[in-house]
Specification:
The structure holds three protein chains of three kinds.
Chain A lengths: L11 H21 L3 E2 L5 E2 L5 H6 L2 H33 L3 H16 L2 H12 L4 H8 L13 H26 L2 H9 L4 H12 L1 H16 L3 H6 L7 H10 L4 H35 L1
Antiparallel strand pairs in A: 1-2
Helix pairs in contact in A: 3-7, 3-10, 4-7, 7-10, 8-9, 10-13, 12-13
Chain B lengths: L1 H29 L16 H8 L1 H32 L4 H16 L2 H14 L6 H27 L2 H8 L4 H30 L2 H6 L7 H10 L4 H32 L2
Chain C lengths: L2 E12 L2 E12 L3 E5 L6 H9 L6 E6 L2 E2 L10 E4 L11 H11 L4 H14 L15 H13 L5 E5 L7 H18 L2 E6 L2 H7 L2 E6 L2 E6 L1 H6 L4 H6 L4 E5 L2 E5 L5 E4 L9 E10 L3 E8 L5 E7 L11 E5 L6 E4 L1
Parallel strand pairs in C: 3-8, 3-9, 6-7, 7-8
Antiparallel strand pairs in C: 1-2, 1-4, 4-5, 9-10, 11-12, 12-18, 13-17, 14-15, 14-17, 15-16
Helix pairs in contact in C: 2-4
Classes of the chains: A mainly alpha, B mainly alpha, C alpha+beta.
Amino acid sequence: MLNKKPTKLLALPALLWLGALFVLPMLLIVMLSFWKRGTYGQVVYEFTANNYIRIVDPLYGQIFWDTFVVAILTTVLSILFGYPLSYYISRLERSKQQIWLLLVMIPFWINFLVRSYAWVIILRSQGVVNTILQSLGIISEPLPLLYNSGSVMLGMVYTLVPFMVLPIYVSLEQMDRRKLEAAYDLGATPWKAFWHVTLPMTKSGVVTGSILVFVSSIGMFVVPDVMGGAKSALMGNVIQNQFLSARDWPFGSALSIVLMLLSMLLILLFFKATKASEKKEGTA
Amino acid sequence: MKTWRRNVLSGYSWLMLVFLYLPIAILMLYSFNDSRINAVWSGFTWKWYLSLFDNRQVMAALANSMTIGIISSVLATVLGTAAALAIKHYSLRWRTFVNGLIYLPIVIPEIMMGLALLVLFSQVHMELGKGTLIMAHVTFSMPYVMVIINARLADMGKELEEAAQDLGATPWGTLRHVTLPLIMPGIVAGFLMSFTLSLDDFIISFFVAGPNSTTLPLYIYGLVKRGVSPEVNALSTMLIVCTVLLVIIAELFRRKDSKTITY
Amino acid sequence: MKTIIHLDTIEKRFAEAVVVPPLSLTIEEGEFLTLLGPSGCGKTTLLRMIAGFEEPTSGDIFLDGKPLGHVPPYQRDMNMVFQQYALFPHMNVEQNILFGLKMKKVNAAEQKRRLEEVLQYVQLTELRKRTPKQLSGGQQQRVAIARAIINNPRVLLLDEPLGALDYQLRKSLQLELKNLQKNLGITFIYVTHDQEEAMAMSDRIAVMNKGRIEQIASPAEIYNTPQTLFVATFIGENNIFRQASTCTAVRPEKIKLYRTDEQPGKHRCKGKITDAVFLGNLRKVFIRLDGQDQVVMAHQYAGDGLDWQVDDLVAIGWSQADEVKLPC
């Protein structure tokens, strides 16, 4: 079926490219995670499960836990902050919608290293906020606004919230407005109509946005690196460190695979949960 | 009551915009601050920008970013467009499979892709540098090109291509005279998007760059690790301005698109 | 008459679904043949197989006696007018019309000559530099036709070409299309679901249902002597009287209404009028037959002299010659 029309072959270069530079490297880290690390950081091609056994350690358990807590909190906060904005945009006239969407999209494209750095200017001890508060005489000593878990959360939500706004906006746009009108017609208050009609019908947008935000925050190491202190290291930082400083690639690979599997499991559970709630509503 | 609710919502949305843009605006503002040390405003200056142009490392990073950006986005656009054109003709099952494979890089955490590529390059003993950066950038921007082109092709439908074939155009003739001219704005938008992605990428580049292939974001990262300085502000501002311009132009092309097709 | 297209037991299946069961059809040179049927009856698939956009699962199509087999659309000597016209939005009227000649690398002088001729023919000379967006629906339709006929195709395929236009325009274009076909002498294969359109234009109509051709004949024959129950009810209005394994179809205009006490010899059934709808030139009368569920429709023309009212008791009758016997 691939050779009936010559145009069908046009996908071959792209597929070969992705095979060599995406699929193959992914398989390689799976293999690497079962190999040994040599004394000088080189890879020794001998099978071992040791890398995985090493992960079962309270130290790494804590970091995995922190990473998932931050990722889940980031996702939840992004929904809370993003949904009203998407709703507002979807209610605007067409021409204004386009402008607002572009305004939300632009920060999404700006390098998030630069965007996290912008917060450093604002929050550091000689930063904008502390300078203003001190010159107003409200505080005498600079507040420790940066390098804590709060600043990491702020940075995460700030960089990732556009991921949430766009999918929710799309699902609000595709929603059948007549159902909402029907709900009003049947005497639902705006809040009830929102809760029982709009929210369930835009679930797909929330799910898509959540996955995008969650996946991005799971592997994030720039924000904790720039805005967090040594104590707020997340799994991304540990993995990066294994690869670039500690030079223990097999262990780093094992860590990243466990991270991936755990996040996939969470996403799967999340899917199941939303499906289950759908069914409940169906029978109610 | 109803207007009250709407006002709250609109007030909130404007606040969100402020939240999104204020840090960026402050960063840009401080790139013009005369004072080096702290947040007190001590006068307007261009000197940090001028010093950037005198800095050989900055210029080298800029040149690297441009070379890598242009080469990788040309490659990504050509490969992505060709693949999108072909996949359209596949049966549903194949199309779903191939699209799934192609969209996978978008949903995999960037750090995974970065380290996986690092492992690959070291296993085949490829020296890290501009070459490996270009390969990595093509890999992550090609899927975005495909998303844009796929949307464009779906909008176009198959009737116009059938009409061309009916009028005697061979598959290649159809491609040249009908399909390509009609999706050209999408191709331009895809090119600009992948250029933006390449220019902005930090995480993946962080893993696959060599000592002589520092790009702008990598250079900025090095400076950021050393602390806040007006030079970083100026350099970041330049990167932001480039990104914003590129995104707006790309968006205009993408929209121009749908206007010319729907009649 | 000479055969131009012959479909030899062609069949089309998509996955497991049979869209067109094995079917044969012969189309004669210069005729206006319409494929008529409800949506989903396979008429468009049939047309697309003739054009070469779909390949038959089995069987073959012959053009002038030569099998078309795997011949791609761009090598078939026929052209198509698409439902939504499919004009190239990035080309003006002239470029759209010349597209086919350019693809066949016809020399420039010949291109110019044929372009002028066709532009005049479809009265688009003044609009030649406009883009499709700047044209009305009817004008776009002319461009679509001009773009096809400039290639002098052996056969012109038309896929509901009037479907997107409003009623008035459709009426006037029906006649134009019919005249065009007569003057050019090209064979037309026309797909529509609109029976009025089919009746007004065709030399022959093939009535299709569930992928099968139920009957292929002239419009008059199709109307007067339908061969299947489907044709009898799909084309125009009809009353069907069922008796065991045969059905009798009688058109409403052939049903005569009598007072119950008048000409009892001609009565066939009795009933009560349930509705009478005035439509200007005629009145549609609905009669529920005594002791049955069946409602019979009768057309009563102005000047018949009798004015039936709802609830009147009537007797109905028809002459033997107006009956069509059909297998049920």
